[in-house]
Amino acid sequence: EAKMQGRGLYCVFEPSMGEHLRDRRQFEHDIRHAISRKELRLVYQPQAQLQSNEVFGFEALLRWDHPERGAVPPAVFIPVAEECGAILKIGEWVLRTACAEAASWQQPLAISVNVSAMQLHGGNLPELVGAVLKETGLDPFRLELEITETCLIKDIGRALAALRQLKSLGVQIAMDDFGTGYSSLSNLRAFPFDKIKVDQSLIRAVDTSDEAAAVMRAVFGLARGLKLPVLAEGVETDAELTFLRQEACDAIQGYLLGRPCPISDFAQHTSGKGRTPASRRQSNHELR
Ligand code: C2E
Ligand code: MG
Ligand code: MG
Ligand code: MG
């Protein structure tokens, strides 16, 4: 009887698994062609210093407008692009597009670009970054590369060599999503980071939960010991902001300051001109 059930299940699942594989192959095919089909674009999210309230830079975030599926979130397509290798070309496009954009601004604001593990281990990231800086004329100090811990655990020696080469170009390196991975504490000490970006999961509930607040205070203590500035990601509420101010957090990013948007929405920051009435209406990226 069990055998029959097993068989039955097999028969039921087989076609759908075949469909799933076809779907997956189609999805990979679509990702590979997303650049040439001009389906990718970048949105930019402001980052501000907490003491001065000043927007000092933007993080570039990738968006894919698929002709049939609509907007596909990066959390869905980045892992697939990593698995099929398409992330190398996509990451190059992101770097080049973000640096060219930032080089066109009248204000020398910082630009943060996410780098995935495969790019870091692929071997030529420092060469690529050097070439893009030269090509776009962007001051290396304005470029920050965001690296997650999982990028670093695969081949520590190789990752460290690549990061040192990148540092020698003059770019900044931030640890992204701090608090979500593992082996983070030893990595923080071993790698040449300039900043810690604390994941939004650690920010959430700092104002309502003593335990969440204690974890966040421990992160600030650690960062002070290592003399690294902290940026809190995903700040959404005034209560979270108040806590972060009390703890002397250095910088924030999040919906409270501004959602990721086309760069034209932030013209008052990038053009050096005053705010336009239109931008004043649609934006809330100024702290109270
Ligand atoms: P990330 O690098 O940690 O980027 C921050 C994410 O948090 C973004 O999600 C952003 O939209 C979201 N976020 C910002 N503020 C808030 C907030 O106040 N509340 C909430 N709930 N969310 C907030 P997004 O754009 O969906 O990107 C997700 C992840 O995809 C990124 O996380 C990053 O790991 C990856 N990603 C995005 N663009 C690229 C890229 O160009 N290259 C690579 N390799 N990865 C990318
Ligand atoms: Mg990031
Ligand atoms: Mg990231
Ligand atoms: Mg992050």
TrEMBL record:
Superkingdom of the organism of origin: Bacteria
Organism of origin: Mesorhizobium kowhaii
Region listing for Disordered, in residue ranges: 268-288
Residues annotated as signal peptide: none
All copies of domain EAL, residue ranges: 24-274
Stated name of the protein: Bifunctional diguanylate cyclase/phosphodiesterase
